[in-house]
Amino acid sequence: MTNEEIKAKIVEQIYEIAPEHEGETIPETENIQRSLEIDSFDFLNLLTGLNEELGVEVPESDYGEVDTLEHMTDYFAKRMT
Amino acid sequence: MSIFKMPSLGADMEEGTLMEWKVKEGDSVKKGQVIAEVESNKGVIEVEIFEDGVVDKLLVEPGTTCAVGTPIASIRKENETSESQQKEQEVSTEKTVDKKVAETEKTIEKETAKPLAAEKETKTIPNPVEEAPKNAESPEIKISPAARKKAQELGVDLNALASKMQGKIGAAEVEAAAKAAKQKKRGGSDSMRKAIAAAMSRSNAEIPHYYLSTSINMTPALEWLAEQNKKRSIKERILPAALIIRAVVKALQAVPELNGFWKEDGLQISETINPGVAIARREGGLLTPALLNAQEMNLDQTMKAFHDLITRTRSGKLRSSEITQQTIVITNLGDLGVERVYGVIYPPQVALVGLGRIIDAPWVIGDALAVRKVMQATLAGDHRATDGRTGALFLDKLNQILQKPEEL
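The joint structure predicted for all components is written out below.
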């Protein structure tokens, strides 16, 4: 899977969690939780959904590495190859 | 024989729309079973019944809007004969309904807590397909061609707009309607705003609040939780919010005076602990549905129930018991970066627990300074029901419990 495909999967999951942002461009370098008003509950749902889609589980200790769309894409890309 | 009435799903609710029956006449029902779906200012709510029996008659059709307290079904005991058998001579069922309305009004008069508009007539929502075109073509309202064009662009329903206006509709009116519709979407439904406004105004007018706050070292609890979550799959992870809710429930067991209601000039302590958890909805608005019987749940069960409750608040349906039986409210604004929450109590409850953001802060250990995860827990208490001392005992207990997370 290319980085672009991974990013598309993440964006798809974000739309699922926060349907009011559907169709919007998700900012690449802003904190996902803060810019999209996703609370810790929905953030866990997002990671659970991505785990099902991409097969990568993000441990809590790595939450700092998946704070933005860009970082999250890199994180999954690194672990999927 | 007993009568099932349109329930009040909030202090300010005057009417509700019966959306769907989940049972049919002749069905046996059990206490706690969902028998209907009702649309109220809190969205679509699954309405439960509070007795065992058999559905004798369904008195209103789906789509009917009726006042709170209007009889909507009759329930007979398992061995009771049905109403229709009893009153075969009575040709018109309407008469029965009228009689029931009168009886219900009497009972409602006795229930002083809710002086509700039971005399309001049951009314059916007008069928928009039949009604609307008549309005739009009505000679009193002129719609300019520009307005028609604008309406199509902005997706404004001209028929609906025409029914609310007089005279002429121009492009400006259409634009205003589109703007209003958009704002409404952002701010949550008007009726939900009204519900919150009514409850909060009453609270501020009636309840003499006192506020207490304490700093809690969350490092032991969060470290313990991180260890637990490491052993779990992502689906079984426990959020800090669930752990704190569990700790609040345990603290309330030690200080039960904060869990209950102020009614008839006295404190009524509730045996069950049903913490209402403030949950924002994505489309706007806020609900505080209850985790029912939280005192019977361990940490895992608390997380599961919390997960289920948020999911249903945001995308599904809540039950009538969940939105009416809260005994205290817990509000957590920590996700938004707020450090302290000074809450407003939901009457007739007598306390509200506020939880702030967990921050890295200097913390004294012995005679040294260290950095710890620190959370501000606040308590808003009803001074008629309890004194600051009770609130202080509660916050102290909460702090102690959070220092020994393994006991949760």
